Structure formats: structure tokens, C-alpha cells
Amino acid sequence: MNISGVLVRSYPENIQSVWQELAQIEGVEVHGSNDDGRMVVTIEQTDAGQLSDMLVQMNDIHGVLSTSMIYHEFEETNIKDNQVSATRLKGQ
């Protein structure tokens, strides 16, 4: 399981429409926004290779200025031994 925290910047007048389009993407959840167009988003995926495609898809939404991954956690589950190992990457 991959969990990524993303900061999405949009034009302030596009917050509502960008929020709605982001919410339609499978695995994406918008947690909040402010008046200057910043939105806090999480992405949950099973395949780490999909993250870059997801960021491109988010950047292609009308009104989005940029997306920045600010947090990434990869959890690998070994079902046989019921063990979980996690690797965390945090942006500055």
C-alpha cells in the first residue's frame, strides 16, 4: 500500500471545481483548502508505479497550477508471516 500526501495549488477561483475533479479520481481524498488555492490531498494506491501517472493526471485538471508530493509511505505486507514493514519519505 502506498500513501502519499500531496499539496495541490490552483487558482483561488478554481478551488471548488478542482476539488470536485480531484474527488472523482479513485484513491484520492481532498482534506481541505485555503483561500489562496492550496489543497491538502492524500492518494492511496497498491502500486508505487502509478504515483507519477496520478500526479500528471492531477496536473492536467483545468485550474491546477502545480502538485507537490510532500509525504510518501510504502507499506509492504507479508500475509504469510502477518508482518508489515514501512518505508517513509518526507519532503522538506
List its traits.
alpha+beta; 2 helices; elongated; about 90 residues; Alpha-Beta Plaits; single chain
Q: Which ranges are low-confidence, i.e. pLDDT below 50, for 5 or more consecutive residues? A: none
Strand line-up of the largest beta sheet: 2-3-1-4-5
Mean pLDDT over the full residue set: 85
What is the count of helical runs?
Answer: 2
Radius of gyration based on Cα positions: 14 Å
CATH hierarchy class name: Alpha Beta
Describe the global form: elongated
Largest sheet: 5 strands, antiparallel
How many structural domains does the protein architecture include? Answer: 1
Helical content (DSSP H or I, runs of 4+): 10-25%
Beta-strand content: over 45%
State the CATH topology: Alpha-Beta Plaits
Distance from N terminus to C terminus (CA atoms, Å) equals: 23 Å
Q: What is the chain-wise order of helices and strands?
A: EHEEHEE
If classified by CATH, what would the architecture be? 2-Layer Sandwich
Please provide the count of β strands.
5
